[in-house]
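Task: complex structure prediction.
Instruction: return structure tokens for all chains below.
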Amino acid sequence: MNDTIPGARVTGTIELDGENIYDRALDPVLLRARVGMVFQKPNPFPKSIYENVAYGPRIHGLAASKAELDEIVMSSLRRAGLFEEVKDRMSSPGTSLSGGQQQRLCIARAIAVNPEVILMDEPCSALDPIATARIEELIDELKQNFCIVIVTHSMQQAARVSQLTAFFHLGRLVEVGGTDEIFTNPKDRRTQDYITGRFG
Amino acid sequence: MNEHTVKKFDEELTGLKTKIAQMGGLAEEQLARAIDALIRHDIETADDIILTDDKIDALELEIEEKAILTIAKRQPMALDLREIMVSIRIASDLERIGDLAKNIAKRVHAIEQEHPRRIMTGLARMGRLALAQLKEVLDAYAQRNEAKALDVWRGDEEIDALYNSIFRELLTYMMEDPRNIGVCTHLLFGAKNLERIGDHATNIAENIYYLEHGTPLKDERPKKDTTSTTPVTSLGA
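Output:
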């Protein structure tokens, strides 16, 4: 994605299972199948609830039959904690759901292709506190099976949902460590200033 | 340390520090007057000390409320959170110190008449020492002076040693003349109170260390209070 931004420059490496993701030999399409993404604003496809979730497994050829695809859709919605709320209106448009439901639909869509990593970029910033709590509860359940990387500006959210925290400032990695340590006794002065609200 | 972007947060933290200073000052004063009242057998001052203790209790409540409100409003992290937790802990140590001073004042009533000064000298010395420790540790907190706090922490050994010698001394007076038993028992409790005050001062010192480092002080403090394990017969009367 960075390749499409003129003037963007990347230093350092990000490795997935020991492979540099910027390695030319790595197929970006396959990489995308291994990394699910959830964004700041819920962005369901302008399709039915069912199709939103079925899309990924279908194009990746993960289901051999309609029955199998149904099963993937249903279990993904269930794991995203949305199934009970939408089971009677699977053909309604995804965009007809509330914000929090849309975000959970996007999470269902992401986990339908069984990724190794789920990237969540500010997944709760457009949601109210109750919808936020449901997403956080979901993150807690999903972390049993997926590696979740969440980007958040909410210090409290980072402290609540994560086990490891990395602090980036102006595009640079300042400090990384156990969440308990980072929020109670950070090593770097800039981290301390940031989490205690001393950055102007 | 830089200021918070939200100035009000800084004001709240400073407010807590000021309240602790006020409470500490009051505890110091109460202790000084209690020791003095005991030695001079001053019932009027003793009664006043007993009444004034309510003010210390009220300050502890006030600090607790302020601290809880700040936690709820600001969700403090790291250093700020420690600052608030430590203020609650110090307030509780000071409250206990206030109670112990009050307890010393109450004994002025129990000791019915004036007694020879020599019986009191040990206690007076111990009182001065406990008071100095309390003053030092409160200064260390106000100035965030960790070295000073550690001095207090180590200095408690001296109070403990003095307590041991007073214990022995008072036992001797009791053996000399059974009519001394009443007054000496009260003085012994008074000395025990001073020894406990010394321990609270070291608690405060430990909290100053924690405030700075975010980890508890691990060293084992030298303990010299052996009175609970000393048999009376070994004093060889």
